[in-house]
Write a structure and sequence with these properties.
The structure is a single chain. By secondary structure, this protein is mainly alpha-helical. The chain has a domain at 58-112: NADH:ubiquinone/plastoquinone oxidoreductase, chain 3 (Methane Monooxygenase Hydroxylase, Chain G, domain 1, Up-down Bundle), CATH 1.20.58. 66% of the residues lie in helices and 0% in strands. The protein has three helices and no strands. The chain has helices at residues 6-29, 58-82, 84-112. The longest helix is centred in the last third of the chain and has 29 residues, at 84-112. It is flat, with a radius of gyration of 26 Å. It starts with 5 loop residues before the first helix and ends in a 6-residue tail after the last helix.
Length: 118
C-alpha cells in the first residue's frame, strides 16, 4: 500500500531540493548591497508618522465579520443551485427558510447601524 505513495514522496522531495538549491544559488549569486534604508519600517522612502500598533475601530472588524457571514451563504447556495431540479419542492422550501433567516439577520444588522461608516 505504501508503494502507491512513493511517486508523491519523490515529487515532494524533488520540490524541496529544488527550493533549497534555488535559495542557495540566490544567496551565492545575488547582490550583496546592505543599505540601512532597506531595513527601515517602510521601504517606500516615507518616514513613519505613527506607530504600527495603532488601534482600529471595532466597526472595521464588525464589517469584516459581517462580510464573511453574508459571503459564506454562496458556499451553501451553489450546491443547491446545481442540484435544484433533483431536490424538488422540499429543497426549495429549505433554501427559502435559509435565505429568510439570512435576510432577518441582514435586516437586524442594518437596523442596528452596523453598516454605517461614520
Amino acid at each position: 500500500m505504501i508503494e502507491n505513495y512513493i511517486p508523491i514522496f519523490l515529487m515532494a522531495a524533488c520540490a524541496a531540493a529544488f527550493g533549497l538549491f534555488m535559495g542557495k544559488v540566490n544567496e551565492l549569486l545575488g547582490p550583496k548591497r546592505h543599505v540601512d534604508d532597506k531595513f527601515t519600517t517602510y521601504e517606500s522612502g516615507m518616514d513613519p508618522i505613527r506607530t504600527a500598533r495603532e488601534r482600529f475601530s471595532v466597526k472595521y472588524y464588525l464589517v469584516a465579520v459581517l462580510f464573511i457571514i453574508f459571503d459564506i451563504e454562496i458556499v451553501f447556495m451553489y450546491p443547491w443551485a446545481v442540484t435544484f431540479r433533483e431536490l424538488g419542492l422540499q429543497g426549495f422550501i429549505v433554501m427559502f427558510v435559509f435565505v429568510f433567516i439570512l435576510l432577518v439577520g441582514f435586516y437586524y444588522v442594518w437596523r442596528k447601524g452596523a453598516l454605517e461608516w461614520d
